[in-house]
Here is the input.
Amino acid sequence: MVAFSIPGPVLRGIVTSLPEAVSENRDLGAHFGEDAITKIIAATGIERRPVSDAHTVSQLGEVASRRLLDGLGWSADSVGLLIVVTQTPDYPLPSTACVLQNRLGVGNGALCLDIALGCSGYVYGLSVVSSLMQTAGISRALLVTGDMTTRMIDEDNRALKPLFGDAVSVTALEAGEAGIAFDLGSDGSGAPYLMSRTGGLAESGPPRLFMDGTQVMAFSLKQVAPSVARALIAAGEVIDAMDHVVLHQANALMLKTLGHKIKAREDQMVYAVRDYGNTSSASIPLAMCDRLSTGEPRLSDTTPLRLLLCGFGVGWSWSSAVWTTPSPDLIDIVRVP
Here is the structure.
């Protein structure tokens, strides 16, 4: 576990791209049984999810990136760093970041790389972006996070099919007066409980997701609260001072349980699982979009925004951040046919 505080980038905007197609969990009753689906919806709080059998991470990432660049008035060649966090890359190689760099027209001098992380990936990606911007003197960056998880789930998997959605979020970051503190950790002994054994070199075949929900809950209850506490200490903050507490959007029961455990007020907690489900590394920025959406660019508001972010899951891996930044100029959600 590593906790540290650094001068952070300013949040300029977030745009999340969602597939236009939506799967209503109620409709799964015809396949899995009405009573079973009713219980799953009641327990998880997930009523519908964006799904796609055609889009890639780079395609949705391109739509969100162009919306951000146009809305903020940024030229593509002003971006010096482009990081993609995903576990469903377009190709085994090259990196999805390089694919997206070319599509957007980001200059050849930009640093572009992928990070293979899931539910903790947004905060991990934010830590890498923040560190590189500071050490390399980069003024503007795009952090792209998301997965096409639904394509890893069998049609007959009643436990997982109602839970996951597809989404890609792009966050625009700029060097400026902001502060950010992180707590990062991992425990590879949890790998067997949330994984796809197939799809890599170890075992052939298409990727297929497996999750032991009991083990996931036990891990989350063990690691999230201490990680949040360490990030708050590193930032010199208390949770009561946070404007928004945005945890990985696994399901409503887990969010409520963890919110109580970290002693967050109900008005601080952000819930966005009802209409999106679990969208892996896109879940934290998508939840921020759902809570803060403006839909249109506006003049910069320098009022400090205090954010507590925490991702946790596959790996095991966890990550927390306390981020004080001016309010973003553009927050939006776009649907892609």
